[in-house]
Design goal:
Blueprint: H1 2-29, E1 38-40, E2 42-58, E3 61-65, E4 70-75, E5 82-83, E6 88-94, H2 98-130, H3 136-165, E7 178-180, E8 185-189, E9 197-198, E10 209-214, E11 219-226, H4 227-230, E12 238-243, E13 250-258, E14 263-265, E15 268-277, E16 291-308, E17 313-315, E18 318-326, E19 329-334, E20 336-340, E21 344-349, E22 356-358
Antiparallel strand pairs: 1-22, 2-11, 2-16, 3-10, 4-6, 4-9, 5-8, 6-7, 8-10, 11-15, 12-13, 12-16, 13-15, 14-15, 16-21, 17-18, 18-19, 20-21
Helix pairs in contact: 2-3
Length: 368
């Protein structure tokens, strides 16, 4: 009797396990229904643009250089200081070249001797003229020689003083030992200090920069555009600048120059562009060298019907979307599209405001 009850119990247990396993496998084999996400058509403004990277710089920046070689004896300006045209930036102390100095001293000695000899000769002939021993015409060459000797002596003295001090007696207050600003503006940089050696600017040498001065009231954006985009832009187009250091503001500018020649940079051809920054751009101070990105506005449309570009599908060079007709049922609808900003695209024909557009599956999975 006990064995019989045990057999029945084991049989019922096996049957239960079999039925549960069958039910589990059946449920597991059922397909999980997919619910597709849809979006509505909306109105928006679409701005088509391309981006250029570059920096903000002054339109007019001048490096002030020394016209003589020597040592900076005194600096009169510091970076950030506003100065006017003609203001003194620095004073240079002349350190004369020993060979030039020796030659100048020798020239002065020779000129002094020549002048003294001419003076003696003139005085002797003047006495003879007074005694009426010689005619007046005979003293004219002697007088001319004296004047020439006097001029040479004066030139030799000026030359020696110029080599020693950088200024001549005949020049009065004019001197090239004082470095003066040629423009009004702000001192951007002073790369030398008092006591620094400087080299004069001439045909063969750029010379030492004493200070950089710029008009900070007229700033420009200078950047580069890829060759794939340069054909889409033209002078006069508006730009919107985003400056990394002032990310809370946007600055307007106008494209004024596109380089006719590209340059190779990192394996790609880039074209230089320049844009004038508007003078009424908020109250932020633009510093020279700020990095910036420029959105060049190619085209813009306001209040147009649009959809995200990600819902577009393509078939035989035609564009279509899938429109919801019932719960999880869709039909194909071909579209005529317009302006795109890379995220949203204008719909010209094929949709209405009431349509619900299917968002295509990504990687074969639907959105629950």
């Amino acid at each position: 009797m006990i064995k019989r009850v045990l057999k029945i119990t084991i049989g019922i247990a096996f049957a239960g396990v079999f039925i549960w396993t069958f039910y589990y496998l059946f449920k597991k084999s059922e397909e999980v229904p997919v619910t597709f996400q849809t979006i509505s058509v909306f109105d928006t403004s679409i701005v088509k643009k391309t981006v250029a990277t570059g920096s903000v710089i002054p339109r007019k920046e001048v490096n002030m250089k020394s016209q003589v070689s020597g040592i900076i004896e005194k600096m009169y300006v510091v970076a950030g200081q506003e100065i006017k045209q003609g203001d003194i930036i620095a004073r240079v102390k002349i350190i004369p070249n020993m060979v030039n100095l020796a030659n100048a001293e020798n020239r002065l000695n020779q000129a002094q001797i020549s002048f003294e000899n001419a003076k003696l000769d003139y005085d002797r002939n003047a006495l003879l003229l007074k005694q009426e021993v010689i005619a007046k015409a005979d003293i004219l060459p002697v007088e001319l020689k004296l004047k020439s000797a006097k001029e040479e002596l004066s030139a030799a003295e000026n030359n020696l003083q110029l080599i020693r001090e950088g200024v001549t007696k005949s020049a009065g207050n004019a001197t090239n030992t004082l470095i003066k600003s040629t423009i009004s503006g702000m001192v951007l940089d002073v790369p030398v200090k008092e006591g620094s050696n400087v080299i004069e600017s001439n045909t063969f040498n750029e010379g030492t920069t004493i200070a950089s001065v710029a008009n900070m009231g007229e700033m420009i954006f200078e950047g580069k555009v890829d060759e794939s985009e340069v054909g889409k832009i033209k002078t006069g187009m508006p730009l919107v600048l985003t400056i990394g250091a002032i990310d809370s503001e946007r600055f307007s500018a106008q494209l004024e120059y596109i380089s006719p020649k590209g340059i190779t940079e990192n394996g790609a051809i880039q074209f230089m562009i320049r844009a004038a920054i508007g003078k009424n751009n908020g109250g932020s101070f633009l510093r020279a060298g700020y990095s910036a990105n420029a959105d060049i506005i190619l085209d813009t449309k306001s209040n147009v019907m649009a959809i995200p570009e990600m819902v577009l599908q393509f078939e035989n060079n035609k564009t279509f979307v899938e429109i919801e007709t019932a719960k999880n049922k869709f039909e194909k609808r071909f579209l005529k599209t317009g302006l795109s900003d890379g995220v949203n695209i204008e719909v010209l024909e094929g949709l209405s405001k009431k349509d619900k557009v299917k968002v295509p599956q990504m990687n074969g999975a639907g959105n629950q």
